[in-house]
Amino acid sequence: MGLFPASFSQPKTAFTFEVLDNFLLDNLECGTLAMNYYNKLRRITTAVFPHLVPDRYRELMRVARQWRHLKLLKWNGFGHESKELKPGDLALFCPACPQPGINVTLLTAEGGEITNTAPDLEAPSWLYSRSLVMDGNFKAEHMHAANPLDEVALMDGRGFMVGDGLY
């Protein structure tokens, strides 16, 4: 039917697949915030009286998160099979990131090196350096949860970030 329920136990509200895909695209390409997108939906529903549209903002936030997770599963080949997800399975391959055996020299147990570059080339000094970065514009401050115990991890180490248990 092309509808995604806002609740799985007693669904009373549903979002169309088209709205959810449109929100993901607006969020990605235009940086549209969920509140702005929801206000746009209210105005599309009734331009004269948008305040009369029932408030389903919280439902949109929850469903958009679940929709993005389902899309990631589908894009990475977990959509139609019940394969076990391992850490990092939902992350894209990044050729610029340090990858042991690909662009990082590995040390063997005997002390020798396994490398994928010519033996006469030295590793650059910046390759193993540490860099600490602070958010100077304080734009990441809103990422801190008001109630961290209420947060539910959908990815938990299967994407780009390490899992909660390992962290």
From TrEMBL:
InterPro entries from the UniProt entry? CxC2_KDZ-assoc
Pfam families hit by this protein: CxC2
Q: Where is the CxC2-like cysteine cluster KDZ transposase-associated domain?
A: 2-46
Q: Which domain of life is it from?
A: Eukaryota
This one is known as CxC2-like cysteine cluster KDZ transposase-associated domain-containing protein
